[in-house]
Amino acid sequence: MAEKIDSDADYVRGEQTSETTIEAHAESSLEEKHLGEEEMPQRVSVDDNDEEIEENANSPPKENAVTQTVSSQSQKMTKSKTVIVMGALCLSVFLAALDMTIVSTALPVMATHFHATQSGYSWMASSYMLANASCTPFWGKLSDIFGRKPIILMSNVLFLVGSLICALSYSIAMNIAGRAIQGAAGGGLIVLANITVSDLFSVRERPMYYGLFGVTWAIAGALGPIIGGAFTTDVTWRWCFYLNLPVGGLSLTILTFFLSIHTPRTRILDGLAAIDWLGVLTCIGATLMFLFGLEFGGVNYPWASATVICLIVFGIVTYGVFYLIEWKVAKYPTIPMRLFKTRQNIVVFAVCFCHSCVFISGSYYMPLYFQSILLASPILSGVYTLPQVLSLSVVSAGTGFFIRKVGRYREAIWIGLAFMTLGYGLFIDLKPYKSWPRIIIYQLIAGAGVGPNFQSPLVALQANVHPSDMATATATFGFIRQIAAAIAMVIGGVIYQNVFAQQKPHLEAILGTSLTSQLPDSMAGGDTSLLKSLPTDQRDAVQSAMTFALSRAWIFYTAMGGVGLVLGFFIKHIELNKSHAIAKTGLEAQEKARKERIAAEKAAKEASSKAEA
Q1: 61, 597 in Cβ contact below 8 A?
Q2: Which region holds residue 236: left if phi is over 0, alpha if psi is between -120 and 50, else beta?
Q3: pTM across the whole model
Q4: Cα dihedral 185, 191, 193, 194 in deg (nearest 10)
Q5: DSSP label at 528?
Q6: What's the gap between Cα 154 and its chain centre?
Q7: Alpha-carbon Rg of the chain, whole angstroms?
Q8: What tens digit of pLDDT does each residue of 223-239 get?
Q9: Which helix (H) or strand (E) holds 19?
Q10: For the segment 279-329, what is each residue's pLDDT rounded down to a tens digit?
């Protein structure tokens, strides 16, 4: 019979009290037994016997860790405190998501203010996403070493610093630097919000709170262009960044005083020495090279140029080096390669990739359709996306409640991917004029499909990893989502540009060579002044050509949705327990978990050798 311990309720809330060590069945009743105190905190999680470990929502096969099964943290917090903490986390996610879109309508004005070149314009547009994607894996392991609360507070502070730099910027270089700081911190806000929820609530309850993050993301994506356009038109573009200061300050204050979660006493120098710096720098370098290649291709340099080819190839090669470092060198890897040992995790990551590819296309190309083809203003474009935002929000929240109620996530993944594929497939039928039934109904279907898969694949992943890997698994999930978004944007853009270029002879016959050659440069950044100045017949021809080119991009995204749907059927069901596995943080906990994994692997090899003999 496994040993049990008594853990003070305040300790579960993150207070520094008696340290505990137990091994427990996830379903067994807890007997209480004091084992004394330790100077440093340990990892607290759930551990099952080998025969039943696949049944447990929080225990991986053949891994023996320091464990404790407790009631969910939500039962330890009052409802009002839960609402306050979740409100602050949603504010953090809102700001990080908002800053991906709020400057889209302000960029032309900002570029004019700074007298930016085309290259400078591109850097202002992409610096946030580049920093966001490249730094995302780093935050998970950092929170394992220093604790969730200090790191989420640090990312909040960095985000506010980046926002202030952007708001006060007097040069384009200063603005780009501020956006990069914002992006790096924004990635931390999103990942750490997800990790914090996994620490506060059981795997059965998390979908409800992750659903709220999905709602927040959808609202931020819709409001970004509207708020940015309003500030740029009526006040100044600088308010796109000043806005973050009071809202982010409120979130920072609430989390400082109300977030009660275990925080280890990790000495700064020891913690910094334990970070997988070689892996972090290699991952950031690989991501930046790869994304720079995608960003420059067809814009700053031809796709066949040595610059683009070298960036993409060396980026991929550096990813290979990163893999070897994480597998063979890193003591505490940023992205543990054991996450990719099970089919379940690989399939979940693949579904995440496909979902992100499709979702980001709607966030980018639907506003492009409304503004460049239907000639709507940025503010009206945001209004036109409301059907998708509303359906996405309602279904995302509803899915969270559904999973919490029935304890099943596969059905939500399947239905969501099916509706997403159908909805984006219907986008192929969009017309070069305002067909409101199509615009509204197609978006409602697409939003209903996107919504369930903000949280469902993440729940499937967290249900299949050990609590000691919860933070790195969640960060890896976010990293794959960001990389998928970047790749999908580039592929969609290449398809759109190539198909539009194929229609050049037809357009030249109607517009003439001079006007046709001006169209691509004129419409860069959403400028539709040339298109609006054309006579009706010529404008109709251009809009039809653009709609046709965009439809071919929708075909690609529909295919990606279909691939995700097929992969979704390979996700297995794992019971989502209401018992909560608390993952404690700190260097001693990391070291103990590492030694236990080594011992488990050694025992497995010995057992295999005996079986063969």
Answers
A1: no
A2: beta
A3: 0.84
A4: 180
A5: -
A6: 19
A7: 25
A8: 888 888 888 888 899 99
A9: none
A10: 999 999 999 999 888 888 877 788 889 999 999 999 999 999 999 999 999
